[in-house]
Amino acid sequence: MKFVDEFREAGVIAKASAEIRRLAGPHRHYRFMEVCGGHTHAIYRFGLKDVLPPNIELIHGPGCPVCVLPMGRIDDGLSIAQDSGVTFAAFGDMMRVPGTRGSPLEHKARGMDVRIVYSPLDALKIAQKNPEKHVLFFAIGFETTAPSTALTLIRARSLGVRNFSVFCNHVTIIPAIRAILDSPGMRIDAFIGPGHVSTVIGCRPYEWVAKNERKPIVVAGFEPLDILQAIIMLLRQLNSGDARVENQYARVVPWEGNRAALKAMAEVFELRPFFEWRGMGFISQSALKIKSSYAEWDAEQRFHVPGVRVTDPKAAQCGEVLKGALKPLQCKLFGKECTPEHPIGALMVSSEGSCAAYYNYEHRKSDLTTAGVPV
To answer: pLDDT-derived band of residue 363, with 50, 70 and 90 as boundaries?
Structure first.
């Protein structure tokens, strides 16, 4: 296949769906977790749940970096930018995520210098053009976005730009998967592995899931046929008693990962002993911090960071949804107090959040059906 419409061709999708029904049979219930939020959105956007048999259940994992970030880290970053000499720069999907005193956009409305950037290099350019200000880049993401932050820090040091720093919130995918597998009562038969993260880290880091936990994992792309093919590959493994790592997304993901990106990350970052995840608590070696050799560009070493732990609103059940213990619709606030227009939890505001995906693509089916609109 060469063009995107080939991955969405209705006839091929119908054949893939029929093969899934044949392989799944009628007697066993399968629970597959898609780790990546991009997969969750694709599943709902393209209506893939409707072409799967009822005995295949898709569980939504914690693969949205905005969603897993606890409120306290948002508050910490914004606390630094309370200084009028500091500019707060972040990606657009962070702007409406609530902290205890409001989102970055709400702080902007109160007078804080808040900028939306499309890359950390954009934040560095702002610092170069405004030497009288200190530009704080709020870095977030799994290994997917960490290389761009690393390369920006390398560039900042080489250029001697000293009015720039990074507040690092990069997290790593493997410890999160381990924490899910260690959760009491959690039953998952196999994983649809993340495509974006794997373009950087490759497939080899997942081998322990298959070897030690006996769970098949297939790294998949984001088009309808990518996901359906991954499910077929998982079913074939389970039916034959295998547990291996397979790469469905081989057109993009190298087995050994992107060595240049990994080299840049190794120069700039090291693992944190512990890092707090929303709804999952502290997970060891699950996040990156900036090495002491780059301390001058590390916001946590340059500024006082309160480091206060903040719990989510009691009624919100983001943690249970993130771990796959609940579906979005089972949260007490879903679609009522918590909507995309008035989000209470990060899973509703983030562009990759499972609650936003469910609300925008699945939840509204009932509204359209009631209105007489075919779906």
So the answer is: low
